[in-house]
User: Fold Embryo-specific protein ATS3B from Acer saccharum.
Amino acid sequence: MTKALPFLLLLLVASLFLLSDAETTSLEPRAFESFNVSYIQNLGSCSYSVIITTSCSSSVYTRDHISLSFGDAYGNQVYVPRLDDPSTRTFERCSSDSFQISGPCAYQICYVYLYRSGPDGWKPETVKISGYNARDVSFYYNTFIPHDVWYGFDLCHSASSSQHQSVRSWFTYVILGFVLCALL
Assistant:
C-alpha cells in the first residue's frame, strides 16, 4: 500500500490538470470580422420582439446606421439592415427602443451582432430578443460598438463544448475509479 501512495498522488495531480482543462466562454462582446449575412435561410416566417436599451453613458443621440443580426445554432438567421431612425429619436441616451421583426423561424437564439456606421458612436447596454420557438434571451453589451464591423456575442458553441467537457470529466473519473480499485 505504501508503494502505491506516490503513484496515487501522481495520478490525483494528473487528473486535476485534466479536469482543469475546461474551456472558458467569454461573456464580453467582440468583433466578428468574418461574419456573413448573405446566407439567410427562409424557413417560414416568425415574429420577434427586440428591445435595445441604450446606455446612459452613450452619446445624447446618434445619427449612425445600426444593423442587427441574430440567430440559432442551426443556421437560421434574422437580419435587419437598418434599425435606426433619427426622425423618431431612436437610440437616445438612457432609452429603450422596441422593434417587431419578422424573419426566418429560429430555435433558441444564441448569437447577436450589431453593426454601426456613422460619425457619432453608440453604446448599447442590452439587447433582449423574444421569439415564438425560444425563451427570452438578453445580451449585455455596455460598451461602444466599433465602426464598420459586426460586434457581439456568439454563444452557440459554448453549450456543446461544455457537454464534451462534462463527458471527458465523467470518463476521467471512471478511469480513476478503475485504477484505484485495481490498486486496492
Remarks:
- Residues 16-26, 159-168 have pLDDT under 50 and may be disordered.
